[in-house]
Design goal:
4 strands; two-stranded antiparallel ribbon; alpha+beta; elongated; 116 residues
Length: 116
Amino acid sequence: FFFFFFSTPLTLAPSKYAMSGEPELRPFDPEDACVQEYPITTYQPVYYVAESFDKMKQQMREFSNKMDKPFTARYNPYTERIELLTKAQEVVDLAKCIGSDLNTLTKALEKIAGTG
């Protein structure tokens, strides 16, 4: 299993508590985790544990795809930002970028295969 939590040298106590065996450990489930209530004056009583970071990312993608929202979000690896696609022109611009990337990929594959 994979623990994912943050700690700094000034906040080692929460990390020690998380690994003490006292809090309940549950398999990571975004639908359960998003409704889990936590007290604000004590350490959290429940930690969600993912089998792997990749599986957790996939679960989060699936969870967010089920949400009814008035936009679509995408990660832009060039700017390292999340972009919201809320207008037709933004989607058109994304399609053009993908088309350009596919053209570059096709040319590279053709050169490698000796057909280009």
